[in-house]
Amino acid sequence: MRWVRRTRKDRLPNGAGEADRERFAKLRDHLLRLDDEVTCKTCGKKFEIPSHHSLVFLDQFEGLPKDDELDAEIAAAEESAPAPALDKSKLPARFTRPSRGWKG
Predict the structure, then answer these.
(1) Sequence spans of domains, the chain
(2) Alpha-carbon gap, residue 12 to 6, rounded angstroms
(3) What predicted TM-score, i.e. pTM, was given to this entire model?
(4) Which long-range contacts (CB under 8 A, 24 or more apart) does 17-20 make?
(5) 3-state secondary structure 39-103
(6) pLDDT level of residue 71 (50, 70, 90 thresholds)
(7) Average per-residue pLDDT in the chain?
């Protein structure tokens, strides 16, 4: 998906009236979605996104964790606990059989 970031200016333009001041006070930084159709990565099917889901205010993200913090937590968790070995004898036969192609 492609987004455009719109940020609030730091001051009003010259010659702004009272109505402009009221509107400027209500402005917030936001992201605007450019793609209204998204393609699924696995199946290739296209989905249309309703237009009322195309705007996200940036102050809604303030309580969420940052991407770099999440990456550091994931890396620390992977280093501290090794992945358990997968015991294939406990899996049902339909998961251990080799595939024979899509015609099956």
Answers:
(1) 3-77
(2) 16
(3) 0.42
(4) none
(5) ECCCCCCEEECCHHHCEEEHHHHCCCCCHHHHHHHHHHHHHHCCCCCCCHHHCCHHHHCCCCCCC
(6) confident
(7) 77
**Closest by Cα among 50, 38, 24, 34 to 2:** 34
Q: And the tokens for 102?
A: 């899509």
The structure tokens listed for 104 are 């099956």
CA distance 55 to 31: 6
Residue carrying structure tokens 């899996």: 91
Q: Are residues 2 and 34 in contact, defined by beta-carbon separation less than 8 angstroms? A: yes
Q: How far apart are CA 36 and CA 1, in angstroms?
A: 9
b vs e for 63-72, b when ≥16 Cβ sit within 10 Å of the residue's Cβ? eeeeeeeeee
